[in-house]
Design brief:
By secondary structure, the chain is mostly helical. It contains four helices and no strands.
């Protein structure tokens, strides 16, 4: 989450005058998804701690969220800064990782043993 804040601050203060409106909106979208899914990683840790999901389920979900952040937000950060539109072609892979993570979280929550 600290990295998401740093990337947001860098975009707001270091890139605002260097990027056009489209690139800035792409960068802001990267920061938003980075931040939301970093919070998701924290949330699944809490869910595991309280027994709502298993520790192994937590790890699988957290890894998918991290992969999503790296691919989705990472490709958008790079696209915004470089303008290389080809980078947008891998962004959906990160989106699929996000979707898989949230679906897996729902599955893990349903199948977690109750005390």
């Amino acid at each position: 989450m600290a990295l998401a804040v740093a990337m947001g601050a860098f975009g707001a203060h270091g890139l605002r005058s260097r990027l056009d409106a489209y690139s800035m909106s792409v960068y802001e979208k990267a920061v938003f998804y980075h931040f939301v899914h970093a919070l998701g990683i924290l949330a699944v840790a809490v869910l595991a701690r309280v027994g709502a999901i298993t520790a192994s389920g937590q790890m699988r979900v957290a890894w998918l969220l991290l992969i999503g952040i790296l691919i989705f937000s990472g490709s958008l950060y790079a696209l915004a800064v470089t303008g290389a539109r080809i980078l947008g072609a891998i962004t959906p892979i990160g989106g699929l990782a996000f979707i898989a993570a949230w679906a897996l979280l729902a599955y893990e929550a349903v199948r977690a043993p109750r005390s």
